[in-house]
Design goal:
This protein has about 220 residues and is α/β, with parallel strands linked by helices. It has helices at about 15-25, 40, 45-50, 70-80, 95-105, 120-125, 130-145, 160-165, 190-195, 205, 210-220, and strands at about 5-10, 30-35, 55-65, 85-90, 110, 150, 170, 200. About 40% of the residues lie in helices and about 20% in strands. An 8-stranded parallel barrel has the order 1-2-3-4-5-6-7-8. Helix 1 (about 15-25) links the parallel strand 1 and strand 2. Bound molecules: cytidine-5'-monophosphate.
Length: about 220
């Protein structure tokens, strides 16, 4: 049986809590990677903790969004962490994407399309004229042009994105029920994988409450 791939979002500033998340999500039924975002990466001991992790799939969700020079310097500065995946906002522009891809070397550079916490109304507020679906396809084409290694989009866009971006697709905004928190474009794990996602990103539905029970719930839901 093919094992499904899950990035557990370790969104916490407390090292012991993150240790607990890593220990309690161990399972032979899934391929688990660990995603560290701005919260943990900026916490007092976050960086040194990540550096010491061995033999795990690691994802630095830095969401770079800056000028080419700053993106490149930042990528060089985090190389010692030994992560496998690193994110950059596609809206950083083609030049920043290409330069970052070159600087990333063996790190898989992941393009973030439009955050799963945004809907069409929020896009309009920011000043975008395109509807989400069209914008995400547009961004996916740019990611292809920049030869990025993977892409983040919601489960709603996976099918259409796969037509223009042929590498790994990573999908946050995963929920079992109607407790969406701040997410807007949400789908269940099963539906998201059915749509063609290669990796799901799941944070709070696993890390809040009883972590072991939550993992078992996920496995039961998937198999
Ligand atoms: O707790 P939850 O499952 O909503 O966590 C989702 C994770 O995925 C968070 O760490 C968030 O920063 C990240 N993410 C996202 N939407 C994107 C890109 C990343 O929710 N487009």
């Amino acid at each position: 049986m093919k094992k499904n791939k899950i990035f557990v979002a370790c969104d916490n500033s407390n090292r012991s809590k993150v240790k607990e998340i890593i220990n309690k999500t161990r399972t032979g039924k899934l391929i688990i990677g660990y995603k560290f975002g701005l919260e943990f990466l900026n916490s007092k001991n976050g960086r040194s903790f990540i550096k010491k992790i061995k033999n795990k799939i690691l994802f630095a969700d830095l969401k770079l969004h800056d000028i080419p020079n700053t993106c490149v310097s930042t990528i060089k500065a985090i190389k010692d962490l030994g992560v496998n995946y690193l994110t950059i906002h596609i809206s950083s522009g083609l030049k920043a994407l290409k330069a970052s891809k070159k600087a990333a070397g063996r790190i898989k550079l992941v393009g973030v399309t439009t955050l799963t916490s945004l809907d069409n109304k929020s896009l309009k507020q920011i000043g975008y004229n395109k509807k989400i679906n069209k914008l995400v396809i547009h961004q996916a084409k740019l990611a292809t042009k920049a030869k990025l290694d993977a892409l983040v989009c919601s489960a709603y866009e996976v099918k259409s994105v796969k037509k223009v971006f042929k590498k790994e697709i990573i999908t946050p905004g995963i929920r079992f029920n109607s407790k969406f928190n701040d997410q807007k474009r949400v789908m269940t794990p099963k539906q998201a994988l059915k749509n063609g996602s290669d990796w799901l990103v799941i944070g709070r539905p696993i890390t809040k409450g009883n972590i072991k029970k939550n993992i078992q719930k996920l496995i039961k839901h998937l198999y």
